[in-house]
Design brief:
By secondary structure, the chain is of the alpha+beta class. It has one domain (3-251): Penicillin V Acylase, Chain A, CATH 3.60.60. Helix content is 19%, strand content 37%. The chain has 5 helices and 14 strands. Strands 1, 2, 10, 11, 12, 13 and 14 form a 7-stranded antiparallel β-sheet that branches. Strands 3-4-5-6-7-8-9 form a 7-stranded antiparallel β-sheet, with helices on one face. It starts with a strand and ends with a strand.
Length: 254
């Protein structure tokens, strides 16, 4: 997952609005979002290579999402899979704070990660680049491959565009949010320095990515209203374009 923009407790009808793009190699096997057979309460896609997921929601309102940190020396194939950070939280019963407090003690067992965990009412954040457990404040936020709200071009643009849209409408049109996620315009301004060649860094500066062998594999929108009605919509992509849509609606269980 390379871009998550979200709003928490800022809209008259929705307590949580999440829009996210997962970027990955096209050749990495992936299952679309569904309720898992082995964990029927959990709605998420699945990385069939390692078994975990990048973003998910449960019938009880547990929510989690992860991105990697793009930084020289922060990737190690021998470390634990980051996808398990999401699925372990979603299938467990620890509070968000307790889960992250326990993870904080073993966070160096993983390559660089940003992790959001919580539920329809609260979110907490941890990264393993010197971070501590933080309570995510109400308002608009963005996360890519550095820390929460680091002003990378795609983060700033996506967060502002989502915020502008939500300020002008009471009934959210999911297609409008998907249009924000489909923005393939690359920045012409300054780029973050992550150790990649400048040409590749610019190709990765757009919200939606499509380059040879790598790109946005799925876009996901999650809405939870003040009555705890949840909407989860995922659109999936191959190198040749959109391949499908998976839509789920349910009432979060008390």
């Amino acid at each position: 997952m390379c871009l998550i923009i979200f709003q928490k407790n800022t809209h008259p009808h929705y307590k949580l609005v999440v829009a996210a793009n997962r970027d990955e190699f096209y050749g990495r096997p992936t299952a679309p979002a569904q309720f898992w057979k082995q964990h029927p309460e959990m709605l998420a896609g699945q990385d069939l290579s390692k078994g975990g997921t990048w973003l998910g929601l449960t019938k009880q309102g547990r929510f989690a999402a992860v991105t990697n940190i793009r930084k020289p020396g922060f990737e190690n194939a021998d470390k634990k899979s980051r996808g398990a950070l999401v699925s372990d939280y979603l299938t467990g019963d620890a509070t968000p704070e307790a889960y992250l407090d326990a993870l904080d003690r073993e966070k160096d067992d993983y390559s660089g990660f940003n992790l959001l965990v919580g539920n329809q009412n609260e979110l907490f954040y941890l990264h393993n680049d010197g971070g501590t457990v933080d309570n995510v404040t109400d308002g608009p936020h963005g996360l890519s491959n550095h820390h929460l709200d680091t002003p990378w071009p795609k983060v700033v643009k996506g967060r502002e565009r989502l915020d502008d849209y939500m300020k002008t409408t009471e009934e959210i049109d999911i297609d409008v949010i998907f249009q924000l996620l489909a923005d393939s315009e690359q920045t012409t301004g300054a780029l973050p320095e992550t150790g990649l060649p400048e040409t590749l860094e610019r190709q990765l500066s757009s919200a939606f990515i499509s380059i040879p062998e790598y790109g946005t594999r799925s876009s996901t929108v999650v809405l939870i209203d003040h009555d705890d009605n949840a909407t989860f919509v995922e659109r999936t992509f191959t190198e040749d374009g959109q391949t499908g849509e998976n839509r789920y609606t349910f009432k979060i269980e008390s």
